[in-house]
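Worked Example 4.2. Read the sequence first, then its structure tokens.
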Amino acid sequence: MFLFAIAIQGCKKEEELFEDPYADAKQSLGIKISETELPTPSSGIAGTEVTFKITGVLPYKDKLSFMFNGEKGEVTEVTATTIKVKVPDAGSTGVTSIAIGDQLIIGPQFIVTGLIKTDITWKATAGANGFVSQFYEMVDGRALVIGQFNNFDNKGIITPINRIARTSIDGEYDRTFRTGRGANGALSKVIEIGGRFIIAGGFSGYNQRTENISNITSLFTNGAIDTVKIKTARKPSLTDTVTIKAFPKFNGGTNDFIGRLYAHQGKILATGNFRYYVKRTYDKPNYDFTRDTVILDSTEIRQIVRMNLDGSLDKTYRFNTTTNKGNIGANGQVDTYMHTDADKLEKLVVFGNFNTFDGQAAGRIIRLNANGTIDPTFNAGSGADNQIFSLIYNATTKKYMMTGSFTKYNGKTAIGIAMLNEDGTLDESFTAKALDGGYASFAKQLNSGLIVLSGGFKKYNNVTRNGFMILNSKGDLAAGYNTTGPFQGGLADAIETKSADGKKALLLIGTINRFDNQPANNIMRVTIE
């Protein structure tokens, strides 16, 4: 006991030798911005003078900087109880703060108003509980919403809405769409062709058909899967009876995820990072005749495959009948974008992270003619010096917008964001400024010339832009369009449309967790006027 007490006393003495870890900490400045009294006014445009209730700031009036979401405002008056500040031109919605030396005092949120506002006429206010990949507008005024969700606008709480929903153009959920259990995996794209919907993505079952689907299938326009009844093969026996089973009518697919889907010359063009086209034989026995069987056949076709409307392989497009294989394709990851040129010819731009395509040098981007051959009129030169994340063409402006981790395009400076002419050359009238904090992952030019971007960036040209911004056609932040606050997530598309009361609007889809510093659920509409 005596020795134990000595040991404890020794520890105490040793503890007294430690230096105080807070000895050099800075003393509190005694400044307090009121958390209970809102600023006056609580929202306003750039240039608005705002009064904040504050105490303890008067001794520091000549040393402080007041910021709106990280951008410095002009202080016009400081008293013992208030501070007046003008909203800066680059200000955006977010928290306010005061910086004095290296100390920061956080204030209340201030809403900077501008030309972009959440559309109050959008019906699906609860959005989707997972990624939304496409909002497909139908000619009858309704739309299909697809992605990786199992609840839409809180209508799937009791019965899940698995990856596909039908809505009005304003987002109101349509319960008459007969999807049943829906898809058992993510959906990427839907097209309408031959009186059917074709859906694609990464799934193996739809509603009651829980197998024999390889990432693509066809639906009736009411949402039910299109099936066919087939007599299956069994071991010959006097006691056997004929077995008839229902299978998906669309008999074709791929061994991996389909990222894009296009109607192409009356057929179905699918692209992705798959390696094989697959199909099934239902009416032939397996090698030992022991049971009902499905035989899976595969043909090597990389990244781009065209199928007939029944799912059978179209061997007239990018296929070598001598080797019974598809063309070589890219030697790395690909994505695609298809559009129609001035001569109404379908052009498929292939981009991503590769340096050869069909055995030819390619700087991460090439364009294909309607017959699947490389288009020599697309003058990308040496292309991008690093990966291309996204590319979208605008038929009105006849420009491509692309994003990526590249710093050069065909040897010319293009840092992370670039505009291309229709012939694939760099449009040097657009100059992207420096991005801080991350890359842009999405860019789309609107018909007006404005450019919508999203990504992981925090600043653009040293101006705070938390993941979302709108540029003009020269690459500058568009005046009045960049007042929205923090954005979390990434866009899959920004669709030009109108609100229910006729205002110009954008339907934003993708993974959207916050917009304008408010919670968001992957699909929303904003007005842009």
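Now turn to a second chain, presented in exactly the same format:
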Amino acid sequence: MKTANQQNVRQPVVYTSRARCRDCYRCVRVCPVEAIKMFQGQAQVLPDRCIACGTCIVNCPQHAKEYRAELCKVLDLLSSGNHVSVSIAPSFVSYYEEWAHRRLPSALRMAGFRYTGETAAGAWHSAQATLDYIQAHPVQHHICTACPAVVNYVLHSRPQLAAMLVPVASPMRFHAGQIKDKIHGTKVVFVGPCVAKKDEASWSSAKDEIDAVLTFEELNDLFKIKEIDLERCEESSFDEPVAGHARLFPLEGGLLRTAGLDDNLLSTRTLAVSGYREVSQALDAMLLSNEPMILEPLFCKNGCIAGPSFSNKGNFVKGRQSILNYSRLHPGLKTLEWAVHPFIGFEAPVKHIRNEYSEDQIREVMQKTGKHSIQDELNCTACGYSSCRHKAIAVLDGLAELQMCMPFMRRMAENRFETIIARDPNGIVLLSEDLTILHMNPAFKRMFSCSDALNGRKISYLIDPDCFEKLSGGHEEVKRGVMHFPSYNLICHVVAYSLPEEKQYAGVFVDITDRQMSKEKLDELKSETLLNAQELVDHQIGLAQEMAKFLGEHTAKGELLLKRLVEAIGK
């Protein structure tokens, strides 16, 4: 049996693919609820803070943010033998080309769904329930609740506005409930552009209304697995009608129009906004306004035609026009049988108590990144946070790392580079385009007995500029060689090269004087040894020749005496 703590743990909907996450901090910058934690340069999504809006998915340039896939779950449902129904969001009109609109119902049936319906059918009921509640409570602010990301955002970031949420189920939940009332025992799969719907399906108030949620991308993958080609599907219709203007729900003002509320852009009573910044500003305005306001918020900029599934679909204006044209060509019924559904409640999330830090604690963190005064606080937002102070608090909260400060890390790198150059035992000189000395490291100054007073003078003042002149003439990009500097008692291996973008030249001088002197002494010793060896060889050869001559004379005399002796004996 699960404990209370286990029941409160939210299953992650959005997560990071660590293999593709590359220190850009874009998700930190765009996350509206600070649900991103940086650890060792990798972004982690905190499930207990994430509202599953998908903003980080849309904005991640590395495509390192992904959402929980439920395609396998749907495949299991379709192969289980159960009756499976599908509810497809009205934004499918802007996702698929016009020729595919009437082929989609057939494709869904071929995939194994035994009942196909447009979520817009539930949207009309959701809008009517919203109208009923607003009319019953005319003197208070109202926040419409068709968008689950907005509901999550209010509960997490504006809990003081929670009472203003209209306690009405979203079109997805309304439609799923209607299908299950009509077909007992059926499983309902929702298909749409929204990642937050995956989270909404797991809300305790949703009970067992939704069995799985797919995005349009996942639906396309399902068609590929089932080898379904939309172009070869016959045209057909969905299994139920839609009422009113419910097919306009994906657009700003679609709910207001469907509910029969004032959807005039210049209305002072109603306001339709999209985009999390606009939603945030509208919520702040409601706190300050004494006049009752009806707010229809959509968390994705430009509405449900720009959700995470639409990140690669191009111009939203085309999608908006598709919704308007489809609604005009397929007008909804004037009315449907109105089934009253009870109002719902929204479960408050686990409250995050913000830690309070002293000014000394905040200043201590900021000083670690070189911010010792207000002038040092650049507030460049490169780290993803709105200010240096904000980032310092995030460090104390364990959400950010010191290394996220780009100006600080750049200074560190520059200082480290300067330290390496300063301590390099080889001489290094930097010259301008006209071979004027710009910089000399300590080793170069020691080797050529000079100081920074020569900065601004021509290099020819110190040494023969031949190698640099060849570079400036464009004949070579790198010049290597051994150069002798008798006046400095130096022999150096020189590497000179150009820096085209900076229009500068650099030279590295490696002192090989001792090595060269040792080589010359060794060569001298080798020559002397060779002469001595040759003299010894000549001496040995001469001695051998003398000995041979001496031996030859004595041998001849011996032969003569022996011959005489033989002759005497013979006689």
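Notes for the reader: The radius of gyration is 43 Å. The chain has 20 helices and 16 strands.
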